[in-house]
Amino acid sequence: MTEATIHSQPRRTLLLIWMILAQILMLGSLVIWLVVAGFSVMAFDAGVTAQAWTLVILVWAYPILPVGLIIAAWRAYAKHRGVLAVVLSSLSFAPPILLFLAMFISNYLWFAQNGGLMQFK
User: How far apart, in whole angstroms, are the C-alpha atoms of residue 95 and residue 106?
Assistant: First the structure.
């Protein structure tokens, strides 16, 4: 073994651990997506409209993004492109986190503009 191989082994091990952790987080987002996908058909309760179809198609198409990113991350890992593998595997579970962050910020802004919880007393 060369010295470069010895020093790159711990980095590849950490990368592998991160990719497995990212894949577990992505699977967790897909479990939540399964519930959301089940409820998304309620968009048709008011009738079949273009908006309802758009919502349902967007919700049902979500798994394509994280699964595609994980596949690309594993291919990058196999080609020894560590940075690309980290970025792709991190992006696989980013959409639910960004959505939660957007909901939190919009909720905070709404309460800040409307007097907080005082109006509910």
Answer: 16
The one-letter amino acid at 23 = Q
> Domain range holding 58?
3-120
Say how far apart CA 107 and CA 101 lie, in whole Å: 10
Query: What are the pLDDT digits (tens) for 11-43?
Result: 788 989 999 999 998 898 889 899 999 999 999
Residue type, 46: A
* Nearest-angstrom CA–CA distance, 74 and 76: 5
Q: What predicted TM-score, i.e. pTM, was given to this entire model?
A: 0.72
Q: How distant, in Å, are the alpha carbons of 11, 76, 83 from that of 14?
A: 5, 15, 12
d(CA 33, CA 61): 10
Number of domains comprising the chain: 1
66: closest CA among 39, 94, 87?
94
